[in-house]
Give the backbone structure.
Amino acid sequence: MAEFEPKVVAFVCNWCTYAGADLTGTSRMKYATNVRMIRLPCTGRIDFMLLLQAFGHGADGIIVSGCHPGDCHYSAGNFHARRRWMLFRELLDFAGIDLRRVHFSWVSAAEGAKWAELVNDVVNQVRALGPYDEFPKRLNRQSLEQLCSVEVGR
Amino acid sequence: MPRIGVFICHCGENISGTVDCAEVAKVSAEFPGVVHSVDYKYMCSDPGQNLIKNAIQEKKLTGVVVAACSPRMHEPTFRRACAEGGLNPFLCEMANLREHCSWVHEKLPATTEKAIDLVRIMVEKVKRNRPLFSINVPVTKTALVLGGGIAGIQAALDIANAGHKVIMVERQASIGGHMAQLSETFPTLDCSQCILTPRMVEVAQHPNITLYTYAELEKLDGFIGNFRAVIRKKAKSIDEKLCTGCGVCFQKCPNKKILSEFNTHLGTRTAIYVPFPQAVPNKPVIDREHCMYFQKGKCRICEKFCPTKAIRFDQQDELIEVNVGAVVAATGYEVKDTDFFPEYGYGKYPDIITGLQFERLASASGPTGGVIKRPSDGRIPETIAFIACAGSRDPAKGISYCSKICCMYTAKHAMLYKHKVHQGKAYVFYMDIRAGGKMYEEFVRRTIEEDEVHYVRGRVSRIYDRDGKLVVRGVDTLLNAKPIEIEADMVVLATAMVAQPDAEELAQKMKVSYDENKFLSEAHPKLRPVEMNTAGIFVAGACQAPKDIPETVAQASAAASKVAGLFSKDELSREPVVAVVSRTGPPEFSNCVGCFLCESACPYQAIEHEEIKTRDGKLIKTVAKINQGVCQGCGTCVALCRTKSIDLQGFTNEQIFAELVSL
């Protein structure tokens, strides 16, 4: 059997981490292909329903990354994200979701190397943990989709 | 049904080197909703853009995905191409195949698979894009300048000379600010008033400038291009239209012993007064706290003698409402309080004064006519000690920053003293000499070498009186750290420059941020030094940080050019990536429950309260409304909204969920 290749979803802000990942590209640094990035204006935009959705649709691991504290393009969005994150981790833990699959980081627009390193680290960790099918199995997909009012393949 | 076009770029070999572009195009063509899928060597070239434009028209596309480089690079290019092709530019999205795929991965099947995924994600997103339209807000081409010191004067004149209206608000009875109090300026020893007063007159006479002195900002609402300010014009107790500024009133005023603020309490003034002879406007105001009529109900001598009958004891404060498009905050600084250094004896001994007081003593228009005299007995001091960093760079005292100008003005003071009192001895106690600036270091060297001022590197621990002499005890750290004692006739403290006492209140009125020292914070310390984080509000001068005159003037001109740039168009156009409160139906059915969590989270104060009323005016509920002129589109409110009533255009929940579902 071929080695398990995890799917990692990264929620990144447009101004720091997305630009940092662009820098990884322009510096031609290599990292694992397993990551799929979702570009958002700010980590403050991240509603944690998004994270649940990602797990519900096949993500084996999640990265959330934005500007360093104090560097937010919108001055305070990342602080909101951080505060919300503290609570949400507790909640995820309570709900029985493996916290080793969710990673939070700050990657600035100048930290191309850090981005590559972060992706590789998370992918390796998640690869070792194996596929995450426990959560989607438990999930009532219909209700989740209703909640998000999305029909796939429309 | 959506009709999506997918355009895969090879970027020469940058993408096609590791990604099989033809394969991506082939697979993408099969995605639900995709009706057109091609690959091309350079999508951003003219022929590449024409491919997109033609396909939009021929295939009647409802959405476009360009899979090429980073959207941070070419999104504007492709959105423009779509607009030229007749498609709303916000129906175009980019999949980042270069920076996020081909450049960071090897040539492997997995790389092409990832590229296909990236395109699919964007196809799902773009299907849910809605046409958006740039938000245009009209601009009121009038600027409000707060503060009439050199910063405000420079900004106002620059804006007015660019052809725009300016409203200047100054709290004191005259414009001029601290610069009007200074004797001579470093490093050229130009007379401060000689260079400033012509500028003050220019402000008063400029057809584009409306000047309100003895006035303060009461309230500011609105947003960039459309602020509404309320100015409180304090009662001057005179009719400015009738007053000619003849000065009979203050010659006759019987209360002559009031300490003059302008002369830093070293001179006196009357109750009806102009702060200084060159004041602009040169018309008096009545200081009601000291006026005998207002305090005791008797006097009215000024009224009796006024030849134009301009005195108005019954005048009230006036509130003036103005509409402005931009605000320049130039409210300046204050000198640190006197009770700050008990060990230096300030306030206890009259001959210990601040740097600003020395300026008045050295000024030809000052209380002593420019002769350096001791405040206590009027004798000319034979020895003066100058103490730099009196308060600055002293975290224990709460001011850890450097006030920046003290090294220079202390050198200037010592030099001026030596020029006026040739036999006198001047000592300067300093920590370091910070003379960064054009001709500044040379100026300090001149003070030390030509004017023979004794510079002592060390701190002063205490100043006390001994037989009529002020004993300055300190340490000379360059002479084996020996204690040193100087008997001086006068001591000048280079007190720290601090924010105005009400700077915090002003910042809150303007909804701008300020730092721990209450100085106003610029939007970016390097790249946006004159903008504030609230769009349309700019900053100039020492209200932002301690700075000297040339820096203040440079910053004021920079702020003015930003304002002129803003006023160069009739309407402001901005990306419609803003939050909206959902309105699917009549307002009373709005999901919003009015919890206003969003209001406390919004970094821009863009959330407004909207009252929903019945036809007969009964209030049903209060819901959130987003001011699109202020919203910057961060989406923090969206994530926070308990009822999912707010969404962010361009990054809606639906779009992002669709991206995730397509993984």
Remarks:
- The mean pLDDT of chain B is 93.
- Chain B has five domains: 4-127, 142-226+317-332+511-566, 248-305, 336-498, 579-661.
